[in-house]
Specification:
The complex is a heterodimer of chains A (about 300) and B (about 325). Chain A has about 300 residues and is mainly α. Helix content of chain A is about 75%, strand content about 0%. Chain A is built from 16 helices and no strands. In chain A, helix 14 packs antiparallel against helix 16 (about 250-295). In chain B, about 35% of the residues are buried. The chains are: A mainly alpha (about 300), B mainly alpha (about 325). At the A-B interface, helix 1, helix 2, helix 5, helix 6 and helix 7 of A face helix 1, helix 2, helix 5, helix 6 and helix 7 of B.
Chain lengths: ~300, ~325
C-alpha cells in the first residue's frame, strides 16, 4: 500500500495530518516507555537520590547494592523456581489438552460437532463464580497442592477456538484427504501431518498459557498455604504491595520504610519481568499472529 | 467465503468415495471409526471444562441453601432457603455502593478503553512507513506482558507519597498526596493503568482487520480528492466496523464483570469506599474472615446473571440495527 501511495503527491493538508499523527505517536511511545525506563534507572541509583526526586532522566550515583541484596533473598529465588516449574507444567499440559481438541473441533466429520461447540461456548458467557470454583477445588482435594495452580489454567476456551480457527484456515484439506485415501488413521494424520504444519499455533499457545501462568497470583493466593510453594508473583505481592495505611506513624517512619524497601521493589519489578520482556521481541510475531487468526475467523 | 470455495470440492470427493465403496453401511462404519480418535482427542478438554467450569455452575445451588463449608451440595440434610440469600444482599447496606462502584468503574473504563484501541489502530495504520508502525506497535504491546502484581507495584512506586509523581509535583510547588489513600484517585489510577497496559494489545485485532482493507478503495478515494483524514473516516473506519460492533457487544456483556484481581491489589483502607466491587466483596465474604459461602455465591451468581442479561440485550440490539452479532 505504501508503495502505491508514494506515487501520488501529498497535499499540504495531508502533510500536516501525517506530522500530527507522528508527533502524537511519539508522545504515546514515551508514555509507554518512560515508566519502564524509570524503573531501570531507579534500580541502579542511590536509594536516597531516588527518594528525593533527583533521579528523573538518568541514574544518579550508580550502585548495584540492591541487586546484591536481592541475590540473598531466599524467598524470591524459591518463588522463581516454583514459577518456572508451574509454568513449564502448565505449558506442557495445556498443549496436550488444547491442540488435539482444537484439531478435532476443526474437522467437519466430527460427530456431534455442534454439541461440542455449544458445550465449550457456554462457560465463556456464564460461570459458577469464585466460591463454587473454590469448593470444587476443595472437593477434588487440590487445595494446597501445586495442581490447584496448574490444572485450572490448562485450558482456555478462547485459546481452544483460536487453535480450531488456525486449523480450519491453515491446513490444506486436500492433504488430509490424500492421507486418508492412502489409509492413514486419524492419529497418524494428526501426528505426522498436522503437528509438523502447526508450529505457529503451538508456539502461540505455549506463549499464551506460559505468560498467563507466569503472571498469575490469585489462584496461588487462595489455594496455597505453604509459603514454600508460593510462586514468584505471590512473593512479589508481599514485597511490592505495601499498604501505606498499615504503616501508620509519622511521615518520618513512612519515609524510612520507603528508603529500605523501594530499591528492592524497583529491582524485583525488573527481575520478575525481565524473562518475559526479553523474550517478547523475539516472539511477538507469534502473539500478534495468534490474535489475528482468532479475529479473522471470529 | 472459504466454506463456499471448499464445499463443491468436498462433496465431489465424498461422492467419489461413496462410489468407490458402494455400500452406505461401510461408509457409516468408517465414519464411526474415524470419530473414535477425535473423541479421544477431545476428551481431556471436555474433562477440564467439566471439572472447572460445569461443576462450579452446579455449585451455584448453594446460593439457595443454608450452607456450611464442608456440607454436600445435595443431601438429605440440605436446608433450602429459596431466595433468602439474594434478598439479604438486596437489603445489605453495601448493595448500592457495590453496584455503583462496579458500574462506574466499568463505564468509565469503557468510555476510555473502548475507543482508544480503535483510534490507535487507525493512527498506526495511517503511518506511511510500515516499518515504523510495526515497531511502534511492538512497543505498545509490551506492557501487556507485565503482571498485575508488578503493575500495581509500579503504580505504588510512582504514585506513592514519596514516589516520582509526588516528587515532581513538589518541585513544581505542589503538595504531597498519598494517591493510594485517596478514594478519588482510585478510578483514574485503575483505568489509566489498565489502558496504559492494554491499549496496544487490544488494538491488534483492529490492525489485523485494517491490513485487509482493499487498496483499490484507497486509490479510488485519492483520485476523488479525498484527504488522508477523509480516507480514514470513509474507507478505514467502515472496514473495521463489523469488528467494532462485535467488540462492543462483548464489552457491554462485561460491563458489570470487572474482576477482583487488580482491584484487590489496589485496595487500601483509604480508598475502600470506591474500590470495593461486587467481585472483591464476593471474595471477602466467601473466602476470608468467617466465610459465608452461600451468601457470597448468591452475590456472585447475581452478578453473572446481570452480565448475561446485558450480553443478550447488546446482542439483540446488534441484530436489530446491524448484521453483526455474536449469534
Amino acid at each position: 500500500m505504501s508503495m502505491k501511495q508514494k506515487d501520488l503527491k501529498d497535499t499540504l493538508g495531508d502533510k500536516i495530518f501525517y506530522a500530527i499523527i507522528e508527533v502524537f505517536l511519539v508522545l504515546v511511545t514515551l508514555v509507554i516507555l518512560y515508566p519502564l525506563y524509570f524503573v531501570i534507572i531507579a534500580s541502579i541509583s542511590d536509594p536516597d537520590a531516588v527518594l528525593s526526586g533527583k533521579v528523573i532522566l538518568y541514574p544518579v550515583q550508580i550502585t548495584f547494592s540492591g541487586y546484591a541484596k536481592i541475590m540473598e533473598r531466599q524467598d524470591v529465588w524459591r518463588g522463581y523456581l516454583n514459577t518456572i516449574i508451574y509454568t513449564a507444567l502448565t505449558v506442557i499440559l495445556s498443549l496436550v489438552v488444547t491442540i488435539p481438541a482444537g484439531w478435532a473441533l476443526s474437522r467437519k466429520t466430527l460427530l456431534g460437532r455442534k454439541t461440542f461447540m455449544i458445550y465449550f461456548i457456554i462457560p465463556m458467557f456464564f460461570g459458577g463464580g469464585l466460591i463454587p470454583f473454590y469448593n470444587v477445588m476443595s472437593s477434588l482435594r487440590l487445595n494446597n497442592t501445586m495442581w490447584a495452580v496448574i490444572l485450572p489454567s490448562i485450558l482456555s476456551v478462547w485459546n481452544l477456538f483460536m487453535t480450531k480457527a488456525f486449523f480450519q484456515s491453515s491446513i490444506n484439506s486436500s492433504l488430509i484427504e490424500a492421507a486418508k485415501i492412502d489409509g492413514a488413521g486419524q492419529f497418524r494424520i494428526f501426528f505426522s501431518i498436522v503437528i509438523p504444519l502447526s508450529k505457529a499455533i503451538i508456539a502461540t499457545m505455549a506463549l499464551y498459557y506460559g505468560v498467563g501462568q507466569w503472571n498469575s497470583y490469585f489462584n496461588a493466593m487462595i489455594f496455597l498455604r505453604d509459603e514454600s510453594m508460593y510462586p514468584l508473583q505471590l512473593v512479589l505481592k508481599e514485597i511490592l504491595i505495601a499498604t501505606e495505611s498499615t504503616v501508620g506513624g509519622s511521615g518520618e517512619t513512612i519515609l524510612e520504610q520507603y528508603r529500605l524497601a523501594n530499591q528492592i521493589k524497583y529491582i524485583s519489578v525488573i527481575v520478575s519481568s525481565l524473562p518475559i520482556l526479553m523474550l517478547y521481541p523475539f516472539v511477538q510475531k507469534y502473539f500478534a499472529q495468534g490474535i489475528m487468526i482468532g479475529s479473522l475467523k471470529n | 467465503m472459504e466454506a463456499t470455495n471448499r464445499a463443491p470440492k468436498e462433496s465431489l470427493l465424498s461422492r467419489q468415495k461413496a462410489f468407490l465403496r458402494m455400500t452406505p453401511e461401510s461408509e457409516k462404519l468408517r465414519h464411526l471409526k474415524e470419530n473414535l480418535p477425535f473423541m479421544i482427542m477431545l476428551f481431556p478438554a471436555v474433562l477440564v471444562v467439566f471439572l472447572f467450569s460445569y461443576l462450579p455452575i452446579y455449585g451455584i445451588l448453594i446460593a439457595f441453601q443454608d450452607f456450611v463449608p464442608g456440607d454436600k451440595i445435595l443431601s438429605d440434610t440440605t436446608i433450602w432457603v429459596g431466595f433468602e440469600n439474594f434478598s439479604r444482599f438486596f437489603n445489605d447496606p453495601q448493595f448500592w455502593p457495590l453496584m455503583k462502584n462496579t458500574f462506574l468503574l466499568c463505564i468509565y473504563g469503557f468510555i476510555i478503553g473502548f475507543p482508544l484501541p480503535i483510534i490507535m489502530a487507525l493512527m498506526l495504520n495511517a503511518l506511511k512507513s510500515r516499518k515504523m508502525s510495526k515497531t511502534l506497535h511492538t512497543i505498545f504491546i509490551a506492557p501487556h506482558f507485565i503482571s498485575l502484581v508488578v503493575l500495581v507495584g509500579m503504580l505504588q512506586l510512582f504514585f506513592g507519597r514519596y514516589g516520582l509523581v509526588n516528587n515532581i509535583a513538589v518541585s513544581l510547588g505542589g503538595e504531597r498526596i498519598s494517591y493510594f489513600l485517596e478514594a478519588s484517585a482510585f478510578r483514574p489510577l485503575y483505568i489509566l493503568s489498565s489502558n496504559w497496559q492494554d491499549f496496544g494489545w487490544s488494538s491488534v485485532i483492529y490492525i489485523a482487520a485494517l491490513a485487509n482493507v482493499d487498496h483499490e478503495q484507497h486509490e479510488a478515494a485519492i483520485l476523488d480528492g479525498a484527504t488522508r483524514f477523509q480516507r480514514i473516516i470513509h474507507v478505514d473506519l467502515p472496514a473495521i466496523m463489523p469488528m467494532v460492533s462485535v467488540m462492543l457487544i462483548m464489552s457491554i456483556g462485561g460491563l458489570m464483570g470487572v474482576g477482583y484481581e487488580k482491584a484487590l491489589l489496589m485496595q487500601t483502607d483509604g480508598n475502600l469506599a470506591v474500590s470495593e466491587l461486587i467481585s472483591t466483596y464476593v471474595y471477602k465474604r466467601g473466602l476470608t474472615g468467617v466465610p459465608d459461602q452461600a451468601y457470597a455465591t448468591a452475590i456472585g451468581s447475581f452478578n453473572s446473571l446481570i452480565n448475561l442479561v446485558l450480553l443478550i440485550i447488546a446482542n439483540t440490539m446488534a441484530r436489530k440495527f446491524s448484521e453483526n452479532s455474536l449469534w
